[in-house]
Amino acid sequence: MIDCICPFCDARLRAAVADTGNPILGKGRAVRLRAHDFVRECPVCHQKITGLVVEFLPPL
Length: 60
Fold this sequence. Notes:
This protein is mainly β. The protein has one helix at 29-34, and strands spanning 2-5, 12-17, 39-41, 48-57. A hairpin with a 6-residue loop joins strand 3 (39-41) and strand 4.
């Protein structure tokens, strides 16, 4: 989980993201990552975002 800020609307969001540096993924990592549906837009302003966000979490 990470805290992030949308570069478009400055919304402060908590997100679960894929850890691409994890050695357990090892060989075939790119293929496995492409098999997932990642969140592609900010839930507040709906602008396109980058990164491997699995889901946005509710605020604490």
